[in-house]
Amino acid sequence: MNLTDSRPKLPSRLRSILHLLARVVATAGGIGLSTASVLSVQALPSGRSYVGGLASHFRVQYLIGLLVCGLVLVAMRRRGAAAILAPALALNAFLVFSRFVPVAADPSAVSVIAETSGGDAGEAIVEASTDNLLLRLLWFNVLGANPNHDAILRVVSDSGADLVVLGEVRPGLAERFQDVLPGYRVAAIEARDDNFGMALLVADQGVEPESAIQVHGARAFVLRTDDAKAHPAIEATLEWNGREVGLLGLHVVPPTSAANARARAADIQAAADRLRDRQRPYIVAGDLNTSFWGPDFDRLLGVGLVDGGRGFGVLATWPALLPPAFRIPLDHVLVDPALQVRSLRLGDAAGSDHRPVMAGLSWRTP
After folding, report:
1. What's residue 70's pLDDT?
2. Which of 7, 42, 123, 357 has the smallest number of Cβ neighbours within 10 A?
């Protein structure tokens, strides 16, 4: 008895049309993604192209898209077309997977900072080997219009962070800090009705004074004197295990236009200029509105800071509602070479469009 496949089959003409359509879409999509990949690299260094700068943040998405297009073309025996995509695929694979490789800091930079911060390199090495030197820092852009104040405060409380830097703090949220956030005190705050309010919260630590993190000179200040909107930043000096560490919290202008992209560049450059001649190790945390692949991020690296996210992959924070593969990393922690980021993770968005970043820091071991 002969058995025949009873499943309905598409007419041959329709199959040919769908085959051609898939080939065209895969080829055009792959070429488009390849072009965007190359143009976004050409946009760097900072400020060369506004559109190219925007395109530079989507490395994970380019990688996934190119991989899908390439596999479709290979399956359709269009290996020549697939080969055209190989350079862009390799470029994006390198940029994405290099995020999993930590970069060792320059040992000479650690020694210089250790000497200028009140101790010598030998003391820094001894202290760095002690587990209880972990400082827990939370950065969270809470979204100014976010009405979920209880959820935001729960993220802060549950984080166990020693220091909490918040962005987009409005007066309604600020009023609740003292009443419903036990265990934390407000060290500095500028609550605003726009999306640029900032706050620094410090945990009340039930430990001996010599083991606690002391915070001095905490303040909100205007980062750029020529900024007509006077967007604030947060600055403080921490006394941590016998050493001083500076903290700078940033929320810079989003590049919603070419003019705003220039304002973002000016904000980040102002922060870099402030840190260029620093006399103590510094931690920088905030929403830089650029990825580590994008424009202006290199301005902070250029003054000797280390990207704290290297070695932890691509921790994409925005927009929070999307799956990780469709988000981009806009929120960052950078540290002086005397410090290292020992842990880095994302928290619950609590109604914000950004995921919070939780970092564990210690003195760097040699």
Report:
1. 78
2. 7
